[in-house]
Amino acid sequence: MEWAGKRVLITGGAGFIGSHLANRLLELGADVTVLDDCSAGDSAKVPEAANFIEGCITDSATRTSALDGVDAVFHLAAIASVPLCEANPEWSDKVNLQASLKILQEASCPIVFASSAAIYGEPVSIPINEDHPIAPVGHYGEQKAAVDNAIRSIGVDSNSAAALRFFNVFGKGQDPSSQYSGVLSIFIDRSTSNRPITIFGDGEQTRDFIHVSDVIAALITCGESLIEQGTSSPAHGESFNVCTGQPVTLNQVVKVIEDSIGNKLEVGYDKARDGDIKYSSGDSIKLQQNFGWAPKTTLSEGISDLIS
Ligand code: NAD
Ligand code: UD1
């Protein structure tokens, strides 16, 4: 599909995944607008060639102006941290749920939504496919699940929409500076500056780490299908896992980092986080079969790239 001339809105485009997406869509020739309040993102990450609206998705006038005349929306703005949503459930309800539902209602173009593996809660079977029960354990997962559910209930009389359920995304540009940052960004940052890392729990929890370049490929493929085929797209009204299918424990992650930097890490253990899921590993066959998407970057390749 030709992105040249397409006007694309990326909410959360000053964040980790959104800024990668903005760069890629600009490379493909799209006219990109980023809407972000920089609460977790950074305006410096917004590519110069993109239009930047610094504002909050909960503000009605801001949404109206950002959505005006666009051909597609990638809705990524959210409070992305599970414990931060637990600490601020009212605000995360406004941002992650209410504002997302408003964007779904108010947009008159295709929407791709950043859903999450967190909607499955503690899995009853592994690997998790899209038919797995939706049973989130905390506010973050509940709010993502409600938007994901709204997309699956959307019907054919509205604009087209799809939800991509990302598992644990990692790669360059993930901010390591907060306790709420993604675990890999924290571990890499600490280990490359000879500081100790802390594992919450026994380190035997698993995550399915998917490289950001594979996530961007999934977002773009899905967006193209919705733009080209509208509500006839196989993506419309559907949710897709975006994952590798390879569960890795945090203790194994430590080993991979140690092998990559050639040093032992100083590892401490603390009590498990409230609301933390113990096991997570997904099945991406639905995305593979519908769109020929497949994950390309392995965990050790991605970690080596981060360390180099
Ligand atoms: P991120 O925190 O880097 O990006 C989110 C962006 O949203 C930030 O730039 C932040 O400033 C912005 N934002 C937050 N509240 C806002 C508001 N009220 N108005 C406007 N902008 C606001 O996180 P990320 O890792 O890039 O995640 C992007 C999306 O993918 C999020 O929706 C997240 O829930 C989802 N997701 C991420 C992962 C992951 O592992 N990183 C996994 C599953 C789903
Ligand atoms: C992550 C994403 C969330 C996404 C979900 C999908 C972030 C910040 N969170 O949540 O947006 O929807 O995946 O699966 O990107 N941990 C430590 N030490 C640390 C930090 C974390 O042991 O210093 C542990 C946590 O307790 C948890 C695991 O690492 O067991 C992963 O934590 P985290 O990176 O915050 O991600 P999730 O909670 O899985």
Short description:
By secondary structure, the chain is α/β, with parallel strands linked by helices.
Ligand names = nicotinamide-adenine-dinucleotide, uridine-diphosphate-N-acetylglucosamine
Main beta sheet: 7 strands, parallel
Query: How many domains is the backbone divided into?
Result: 2
Q: Percent of residues in beta strands?
A: 15-25%
CATH class of the largest domain: Alpha Beta
- Indicate the low-confidence ranges by residue numbers: none
Overall mean confidence score, pLDDT: 97
Number of extended strands: 13
N to C succession of SSEs: EHEEHEHHEHEEHEEEHEEHEHH
**Relevant CATH superfamily of the largest domain:** NAD(P)-binding Rossmann-like Domain
Biggest sheet: strand arrangement: 3-2-1-4-5-6-11
Architecture per CATH nomenclature, i.e. the level-2 architecture of the largest domain: 3-Layer(aba) Sandwich
Please estimate the helix content. 25-40%
CATH topology (level 3) name of the largest domain: Rossmann fold
Shape: globular
Write down the Rg: 18 Å
Structural class of the secondary elements? alpha/beta
Q: Given the structure, what is the number of helices?
A: 10
Distance between the termini: 34 Å
